[in-house]
Amino acid sequence: MKQLSSNKTLLFKTFIPIFWLVFFGAFTLSTFFMTESYIGQISIQFFRILTIVFYLIGTITLAITAMRLKRVELNASEIFVSNYLKSYKYKIEDLENIRIQNYGIFKSMKITFKGQTSFGKKISGITSEKKLKRVILEYPEHQSLIEL
Questions:
Q1: CATH says 1-148 is which class?
Q2: Strands ordered across the beta sheet of 2-3
Q3: pTM given for the model
């Protein structure tokens, strides 16, 4: 069995969102305990609203992007998908395609199944060039599923 998803998946899925929610959430909460009436040239009320809006936008962005990432492994006949709490096994025949998009610092993969799965019909993840090459070398029969 070969891992198709990058090790960065764990970082982006868990550590960055937890860091954001805890530390920036604590900072946002602390603005309500400030006694100053101005921070620089900005009133404290406007600063509080600004931090709340920034916190909510960041949280929604993380929920839409990073928190949806999955860990993907495959072998000759099956694909394993995990969200680090639950893992599911599917047959390769249920797989429609794996689309890889290069964003410079990382490669995104979107896995599409023929039918509905426990995580939905489309699954997102992050892969690396090295892991992608290993999978193609180990399982050349899967190369027709991978769209670069």
A1: mainly beta
A2: 2-3, 71-74, 78-82, 87-91
A3: 0.84
